[in-house]
Each structure stands twice: as structure tokens, then as C-alpha cells.
Amino acid sequence: MIKFSHFQDCTQKYIVKNYFYYYLFKFSAALGEEIFYITFLPFTYWNIDHSVSRRMIIVWSIVMYIGQVSKDILKWPRPLSPPVVKLEMRTNAEYGMPSTHAMAATAISFSFFIATMNQYKYPLELGLVAAFVFSTLVCLSRLYTGMHTVLDVIGGALISAVLLVLLYPAWDTIDHLLLTSPFCPLLSIVVPLVLCYNYPKLDYYSPTRGDTTTILGAAAGATVGFWLNNQYAASAYASKSDQAGFPLLSSTMLFVLARFLVGIWVVLLTRWLMKSLVLGMLSYGYKFPLGDLAARRRREVEVPYKFVTYSCVGFTATVVVPLLHELLGLL
Q1: Mind listing the pLDDT tens digit for each residue in 239-252?
Q2: Are 317 and 225 within 8 A, CB to CB?
Q3: What's the pTM?
Q4: Apex CA 308: angle with CA 193 and CA 210, to 5°?
Q5: What is the C-alpha separation between 54 and 273, in angstroms, rounded?
Q6: How does pLDDT run across 33-82, given as a tens digit for each residue?
Q7: What is the per-residue pLDDT for 193?
Q8: Would you please indicate which residues are annotated as catalytic (active-site) residues?
Q9: Contact 149/60 with Cβ under 8 angstroms?
Q10: Which helix (H) or strand (E) holds 3?
């Protein structure tokens, strides 16, 4: 239980009565944020299965784009505070309906379950329960942290479920086109970039456009990487159908850990370098100081800054890191 004690200038003080729930739901909330995406999705690509990772990334990017745009079209406010105690402030400027945390958690957990249930032998009941528990924890965390109403969360989960049902029949076709079409690299960059530049305009700044650009940029870079690997490189992590368990369970855990640590270090280094480089170039071109937050929020700055940065992150995770793994003998 969290007891509200003070509210002033968007800063709230509260007393935590149950630390188990507090840390459980704070952790669960992080499962719908960048720190989870930038670790779990690449981990799946490096240590589990290429095809599973591709499907999760495509579903995640489509679901998140629709969710973010829906927020700014519907313009339903978040819960009033007080009486609600809000434990997060970064996304407070966003609208509430639907909950994109709920959408992402539902999309990632159930797309992972669907993609693996026919490829690996494991109890389907266990996979279904794991997907349900994961998505439920994230959904409940949005209520606990005061960021969404019950309707926001239910709406987000249902929209994501409907999109999964609609996408599933075309799953293999989309994957095949992404790997083989000569137009894939061009379309993978142009289409998301156009969507980001034409994101719905608001009367005030909201982080939704920047977050959407981050997601679409990462997916664009990863998609180009998928295509490039299929065209010109031997598959470093070939899919193995009908295996008696996940690859990471049959691999040496030391190699799994080494692949992850090397990979995530390279990914984070890429993000830092590209952020500094791209922002520096835009700062020089548009004549604003690097510390000018208002300038960095302008569309002509924010979109290329985040899109280029995270497309490089996605490309690095799917092309550069696997090559480094091979060079280091970590396959």
C-alpha cells in the first residue's frame, strides 16, 4: 500500500506500506520500457532464435505505433492526481488510453509464446501461463503506479490481442518478404520515417512522438539487418525447428552470458556514440546549444535524432554483434 501525503508542483511524497508490492510493480513497470526492449529483444536474437526475434520485433513495432497514435487521437486524460499517487513523471504528459505498456507486454509475451510453441518442445500450459503472468504483472503495475485507469489497461491489452489475431495469418508471409524482397531495405527505412514525420500534432509537447520514433527506428535498423544477413551472410543463429527445449537451455550458460554481455556493451556504446554524433550535427545545422531542451523537442530535430540513433542500434544488434560473436568464437 502507498499512502499519499503531499502534492505540490507535480512532486508527490508518499509512504510505502508494502515494499514487496512496491518493488514488484516498479520492476514490472520497467518491463514495458526501453531498458527491457534494449536487453530482451537482442538477447532473444543472440541466444534463442532468429525467427522468434524477427516476429516479436515486427509485432512489437506495429502494435506500439498503433497504440501511441491512438493515444494522441483519442486524447483521454490520465488519472487525476490527487487522489491517485503517481510514481512516475516522465510519461505524465502523455494521454492515457490505451496503455502502451499493456499493449507491449501482451504483444511481446504472446508473440514469443506463439512463435516458440511449434518450434520447441515444452509444456504449452507453462508457456501460456508465463505469457499471461508477464502481461498481467505489467498491466497491474500501471494501476499501482497511478499512470492508468483500469479501462486504459484493459483497452490496451484487448487492442494488442486483436492485432495479434489479425497479424498471425500473415506472419510467415511478412517474414518471408522482409528476408527476400529487394525493396525491403528501402521500405524499412522510408515507411517508418514518413510515419514519424507525419505523427499527429498536439497542442503541447508529449514524449509519444519521440518514443514512437525510437521504436520504429530500432525496428527499421533491425529489419535491414535481417535482410542483409539473409542475403549476404551465413546465418549465425539458424532456426532449429522442433527442438527439445530452448537453445539457451542446451548451450553452455557461460557462452550465453558472454554473448549477452559483449552484445549489450556494443549496443549501448553504439547508442551513446550515435546520440552524441547525430545531436551534435543537428545542433550545428540548426544553430542551437546542445543543452537546449526545447530545440531538441522540435520535430525537425527530434525525429532524425532518434530515428538515426536507434536504427543504428537495431542494425548493430542484428549485424555487427553477431559478426563480433563469430570473431570471438562465441557461437
Answers
A1: 444 454 555 555 57
A2: yes
A3: 0.83
A4: 65
A5: 25
A6: 888 888 889 999 988 888 888 999 999 999 999 998 888 888 888 777 66
A7: 92
A8: 101, 148
A9: no
A10: strand 2-8
